[in-house]
Design a protein that fits this description.
mainly alpha; 2 strands; 418 residues
């Protein structure tokens, strides 16, 4: 752990991280290319899909742009807290969640989207599937170098090894979809539990309880930092004034507010919070189906999910959000002159394969990833979101001892990208 502490303080010495901490000249051709692709995608969605899909593409672009500009991490936030006691990023999570629950409460209470459709938060069962899935995901994100959102925006930023994580994330999510009925139907679980609807508190009462919990967690991180004398996060270069919107780093707390608002906009637009990994299962299943696998017979693709399997991927709102995130991160990285492909070593290749598989499989078992289960679940007042965070933190702790096996014994660029 001493090595982790020293390297966290001096992480800017790493050449990959150093490149991500400085401002270069904008890659104007790439920015223009990203803008053109976004426009063409928007036109296609307007022509072929419901207008909500076009709005979701815009939200996805803003999500990717924000995530990259702030280097807003879930993987690194968990790792920093568990390895050296730094809770700065975790406190930004608490602010993000506070903004989200404040906006989610009236939307969920009202119950309809801006288009008149039903609204429902992510409230999932608590059982063996959740415990195993979240723990496995926690290990996987520390080996794979990024969480679900981090994988998407790191791919958009050109970090080569994350393409490996991305591919095997999809494979793992597809296998998880195939196995999910066993985990959910054959093993013990409790009914979904909501602080708002399962306790009699209502959304106003659940909102107050949630804010108190976030405040408590933030206070605990401050106590841990003081006792461990935790090092601070490395500063990231940025423009001054209004130019900072387009170039360089955003403060974590500013990004936390933006992400909380964007998740609420997602909820009121499509009737569900922001999610990522269900699209990975869809993509992988469609590919498997193209190779002759009888995907339609899987329990996961029965009932309500069957329509998605037979429809265009662009009819899937999560797919559209994911595409927007990748493009948004690409534009943000190019605007900062930071888009470039990086070197892949044997160690991080192997870690990315294993980490991607574990994240995909774990996300399916746990009813979501760091976005759908942790962020979306807690914002929806679901008990499973809090349990997901605890188990993923436990997986992170174990992964700190596994990382050296892959030459990942110290925080490197993953502390800047997720």
């Amino acid at each position: 752990m001493t090595t982790l502490r020293v390297q966290l303080v001096n992480e800017a010495r790493d050449p990959i991280v150093r490149d991500s901490l400085r401002l270069n000249d904008p890659q104007k051709i790439l920015v223009a290319g990203g803008a053109i692709v976004s426009f063409l995608m928007l036109v296609y969605l307007l022509d072929t899909q419901h207008i909500s899909q076009s709005l979701l593409l815009g939200i996805g672009l803003l999500l990717g742009y924000t995530l990259f500009h702030a280097r807003f991490g879930f993987t690194s936030a968990f790792r920093r807290l568990m390895s050296v006691g730094n809770g700065q990023a975790m406190r930004s999570h608490m602010l993000m969640l506070a903004i989200a629950v404040t906006l989610f409460a009236p939307i969920l209470a009202f119950g309809t989207t801006i288009f008149g459709g039903p609204v429902a938060g992510y409230v999932a069962p608590v059982g063996v599937s959740l415990f195993v899935g979240a723990f496995v995901f926690g290990i996987g994100m520390q080996l794979g170098g990024g969480c679900a959102s981090g994988t998407l925006y790191a791919v958009g930023g050109g970090r080569s090894v994350m393409f490996i994580t991305f591919i095997f994330f999809i494979v793992g999510a597809t296998i998880g979809a195939y196995h999910l009925p066993f985990w959910t139907e054959e093993l013990p679980s409790f009914e979904p539990f909501s602080l708002a609807t399962s306790t009699g508190l209502g959304y106003s009462g659940a909102w107050m309880v949630s804010l108190a919990l976030f405040g408590l967690i933030a206070w605990i991180t401050l106590v841990v930092e003081k006792r461990t004398k935790a090092p601070k996060m490395a500063p990231v270069s940025s423009e001054k004034g209004w130019k900072r919107i387009f170039r360089g780093s955003w403060p974590l707390f500013a990004a936390a507010i933006v992400l909380g608002v964007l998740n609420a906009l997602t909820l009121v637009t499509r009737g569900q919070p922001w999610g990522i990994t269900s699209a990975f299962s869809l993509w992988g299943s469609k590919i498997a189906n193209a190779f002759g696998v009888d995907v339609a017979s899987w329990g996961y693709w029965q009932g309500a999910n069957a329509a998605a399997l037979n429809a265009s991927i662009f009819a899937d709102s999560t797919t559209v959000l994911n595409i927007g995130i990748i493009i948004g991160a690409f534009i943000a990285s190019a605007a900062g002159g930071l888009f470039k492909f990086t070197t892949i070593t044997k160690g991080n290749f192997a870690a990315s394969v294993i980490g991607g598989l574990m994240m995909g499989y774990g996300a399916r078992l746990a009813f979501g990833c760091n976005i759908g289960a942790y962020f979306g679940g807690i914002a929806s007042f679901s008990l499973h979101g809090y349990i997901w965070g605890i188990l993923a933190m436990a997986g992170t702790f174990l992964a700190l001892y596994l990382r050296p096996l892959f030459g990942l014994s110290v925080p490197k660029s993953s502390d800047s990208v997720c």
